[in-house]
Design a protein that fits this description.
The structure holds two protein chains of two kinds.
Chain A (H helix, E strand, L loop, with lengths): L1 H10 L8 H8 L22 H13 L4 H12 L14 H28 L10 H18 L1
Chain B lengths: L1 H28 L2 H30 L6 H6 L6 H6 L5 H22 L8 H22 L23 H16 L1 H13 L4 H6 L1 H26 L9 H26 L3 H24 L14 H26 L11 H33 L7 H21 L10 H24 L6 H31 L3 H11 L1 H25 L2 E7 L4 E4 L2 E12 L3 E12 L2 E6 L2 E5 L4 E5 L1 E4 L3 E10 L6 E9 L2 H18 L3 H5 L2 H8 L4
Antiparallel strand pairs in B: 1-10, 2-3, 3-4, 4-5, 4-6, 6-7, 8-9, 9-10
Helix pairs in contact in B: 1-2, 1-6, 2-5, 2-6, 5-6, 5-7, 6-8, 7-10, 8-12, 10-11, 10-20, 11-12, 11-14, 12-13, 14-15, 15-17, 16-17, 17-18, 17-19, 18-19, 19-20
The chains are: A mainly alpha, B alpha+beta.
Chain lengths: 149, 662
């Protein structure tokens, strides 16, 4: 299976990164037609919002404007809701930080707990037996169970 | 006839109230006849809901437009399969359908447990019937599916065209099945908390139900993704829409439970945690329904919005308060001594797996509700869209994939250096070889690259597990390779079924990573005979064709697809104009292969000039997402399939043998 996967991956088409900046800006903005998709993803028939926005982005990029400047223009026009993800400023930081902080806190708690449990387990318990031994042991037990059925 | 349906729902509500009350009284006073009466009442609730569903279905099929629901969600020209699907296509019908599934599962649980779990069953019945009361109460007092119009409509408004698709006939029922069957483990958890029988009994009783629920949540999510891919026409399959997130969150928590429950079974620890995961899964199904119904967060699923949000939030609060209260009350009894000896152990790998899964669920929850939080705190509306979810979840997803490779192969308790070498040398080697090969094939470093290499690592650990198990059987029992393999799986269905599911998960990860990172998109306006290149394909627009029938008119652009100077396909992306809800839709045309999908959308057509705008997407490896789904279904079937002993033994004997009293 691994070999098959690798073969398929290698046979996959070569990579293309066409018009990355145009796409980047379009994906950073939400279409205002109510579809809930990004400007890039909205494909509504002659969308009254998405199409003019795409055109304006193209023109602004051609005029040499930076991604940040273009996003700022749209933000000033439509409000913050036009941005497809929260900014990295002020209160919005919480949107980005809290998921990672929660996982990090959980991970830290788990690490401390496992460390403590490990130290507490007085055990002179032997390490796990070798895999082949474990397999043989399990196999023998299951076969015995099977015979008993 | 519709009045009979309404009567059936009212009676079902009364029986559900009776079943709940009498079950609780029977349990507290230890009166078996009362408990039995409660179970019988639950059967009656199911029978009455079946009557109501049959009447609504009959009204739909007979085009009885005097009913508001039938007039709103069907029409006389709607094909029959979508007329049946209209049963759950609107809010009232979907609530009735939910009640139907819930009472069906209640009945199955009652039959399964006729002779076992006598201490738990009254509380299980009471919990399931309380949930049924909520839905039947909504159908009786708030949103009546049998409401008559003052004047019968001459024609129906039709089902939303976006829902007139094959995948929409199976996506909602799958998701509902997953959602509603999560009620069964929840009910057993509440019963365990209520009775104080907190050992393995309830866990064993719901093992298959948990897997069943998880399975249908998996299918529901994948069918929904497939529907979005085919119908919404933006070249993708997952937009992190709030309602998609609502279906994804219980899946994540349920997946965490399926892993952590193994630690409880093996080592009798994590009782509190597992209890919380079961309660949380159910709560998230209600939260999901709340998101769908309330419209509090804007969503593409707006066709199901209504004013029912407050009722769902009220019920959710009730569930959280009762569950939380019971867990707090039983906390001293639930606590067990934890013994994880080392970071290098399967227990630790499973715990970190749980952390990541619940972490992703939390990240999705946080992103989904953050617009509401922002508006509440700052008074500013913001959007939390796909870029946020992709950025936050991509690293967590990669970590999860890594753990999927470590968990199955690492030893319980404490892995010795020798064990680590034996377990991981080959798979890690395979992963590293893959990483280098991919770099040589010009796949840049990044999440996609990491996903592919880790995918090879995970598949390596799984293949090694199969290989070693098979070889051990061959060595000890002198079985042929196919026989050894089939008996290995047959004797350890849960374990090897789980491995097969992991293979499917890898396929889904690879499909998602490749199609997200390496998609090619082209948009071009063409006159007849003109060509445009899309990746390795050349597309030639040939002509426009038109079709018209009473239900819809279609406009299709015929596009021939060429590769290396040879025509390999003809595709015809469409625009459809449905006539009853006058609404245009996009019908994509696809040429799917194992390596990539060529995906065409007809953007626009100008009648005067004859020009069409074609959007072409080349989506690498998307098929592997659907193939992964099939593999996951296969693995789940293996894991759930009863053993020979279970098939031979009657249920009551099994119950007695396998579920000892605490």
């Amino acid at each position: 299976m691994a070999v098959l996967l690798l073969a398929v991956l290698l046979a996959a088409p070569p990579i293309a990164f066409a018009a990355a900046t145009q796409q980047e800006v379009e994906e950073a903005l939400t279409c205002q037609c109510g579809c809930g998709l990004t400007v890039h993803a909205c494909n509504h028939l002659q969308c009254g919002s998405g199409e003019p926005m795409k055109k304006e982005i193209r023109e602004r990029l051609a005029a040499g404007e930076t991604t940040e400047a273009i996003l700022e223009t749209f933000r000033a026009r439509y409000g913050e809701k036009v941005l497809s993800s929260p900014t990295f400023r002020g209160f919005n930081w919480l949107a980005w930080i809290i998921p990672f902080a929660a996982v990090a806190a959980g991970g830290l708690g788990l690490a401390v707990a496992i460390g403590r449990w490990g130290a507490r387990s007085t055990t002179a318990a032997p390490a796990a037996p070798e895999a082949s031994g474990a397999l043989r042991e399990r196999l023998a037990r299951e076969l015995a169970e099977f015979d008993a059925e | 006839m519709p009045e009979l349906g309404r009567l059936a729902i009212c009676l079902a509500l009364l029986f559900a109230v009776y079943a709940t009350g009498v079950s609780i009284v029977g349990a507290i006073r230890r009166r078996r006849h009362l408990v039995r009466s409660g179970a019988h009442a639950a059967y009656a609730v199911f029978a009455l809901v079946v009557v109501a569903v049959a009447i609504l279905l009959r009204a739909l099929l007979a085009h009885d437009f005097s009913l508001e629901y039938v007039a709103a969600y069907s029409s006389s020209t709607l094909p029959v399969q979508y007329t049946v699907a209209a049963l759950w296509g609107g809010q009232k019908g979907s609530l009735l359908f939910w009640a139907f599934m819930l009472t069906l599962f209640t009945t199955i649980v009652q039959v399964q447990n006729r002779e076992r779990n006598r201490d738990l069953m009254p509380w299980v019945t009471a919990t399931l019937m309380t949930t049924a009361m909520f839905f039947l109460g909504l159908l009786t007092f708030v949103t009546d599916p049998f409401e008559r119009l003052p004047i019968a409509a001459r024609e129906g408004a039709d089902l939303n065209p976006l829902l007139q698709n094959y995948w929409m006939t199976i996506h909602p029922p799958s998701l509902y099945t997953g959602y509603v069957s999560a009620s069964v483990p929840f009910a057993f958890a509440i019963a365990a908390l209520a009775t104080g029988r907190l050992g393995d009994q309830w866990i064993r009783s719901v093992r298959r139900w948990s897997l069943f629920s998880w399975f249908f949540l998996t299918l529901g999510n994948l069918f929904g993704a497939r529907w979005a891919y085919e119908v919404l026409g933006w070249g993708g399959y997952w937009a992190w829409d709030p309602v998609e997130n609502a279906a994804f969150m219980p899946w994540l928590v349920s997946t965490a439970y399926l892993h952590s429950v193994m630690i409880q079974e093996k080592k009798d620890m994590l009782r509190v945690w597992n209890m919380i995961l079961v309660l949380l899964t159910f709560s998230l199904t209600i939260f999901g329904t709340f998101l769908t119904r309330s419209g509090v967060i804007s969503s593409v699923h707006s066709f199901t919005q209504s004013g029912l949000g407050p009722f769902f939030i009220g019920f959710l609060l009730l569930v959280l308060v009762v569950s939380g209260g019971l867990v707090a009350y039983r906390f001293p009894e639930l606590r067990t001594a934890a013994t994880v000896e080392s970071f290098l152990s399967r227990e630790a790998a499973f715990l970190f797996n749980n952390l990541v899964l619940v972490g992703i669920a939390f990240a999705v929850f946080w992103g989904t509700v953050f617009p509401v939080v922002s508006e509440w705190v700052r008074g500013v509306k913001i959007t939390v869209g796909p870029p946020f979810f992709n950025r936050v979840n991509a690293p967590l997803g990669v970590a999860l994939l890594l753990l999927a490779g470590i968990g199955p192969a690492i030893a319980w308790r404490r892995a010795s250096p020798r064990n680590l070498w034996r377990a991981f040398a080959t798979p890690v080697g395979a992963g590293l070889v893959a990483a280098v090969a991919l770099l040589l094939a010009r796949v840049p470093l990044g999440y996609a690259h990491a996903t592919f290499a880790l995918g090879v690592f995970v598949l390596g650990t799984i293949a090694q597990e199969f290989w070693r198990g098979m070889r051990a059987r061959q060595a000890m029992l002198h079985e042929s390779a196919p026989r050894a393999l089939s008996r290995l799986v047959g004797k350890n269905r849960r374990r090897y079924g789980g491995y097969i599911i992991h293979v499917g998960v890898v396929a889904v990860f690879v499909g998602v990573a490749a199609s997200s990172a390496f998609r090619v998109e082209v948009q071009q306006t063409l006159a007849a005979g003109q060509e445009v290149a899309a990746g390795k394909f050349t597309l030639r627009y040939e002509q426009i064709t038109k079709q018209d029938d009473p239900h819809m008119s279609r406009l299709a652009a015929v596009v021939s697809v060429w590769r290396d100077g040879r025509q390999i396909a003809t595709l015809a992306p469409e625009k459809r104009f449905y006539k009853k809800p006058q609404q245009p839709t996009t019908e994509v045309a696809m040429r799917p292969t194992l390596t990539e999908d060529l995906y065409l959308v007809l953007g626009s057509y100008d009648e005067e000039s004859g020009l069409v705008t074609i959007l072409a997407y080349v989506n690498p490896l998307v098929s592997w997402i659907w193939i992964g789904g099939v593999i996951m279904a296969l693995g789940t079937t293996v894991a759930m399939w009863p053993t020979l002993a279970e098939r031979r033994a009657p249920a009551y004997a099994l119950g007695a043998a396998r579920v000892p009293a605490d």
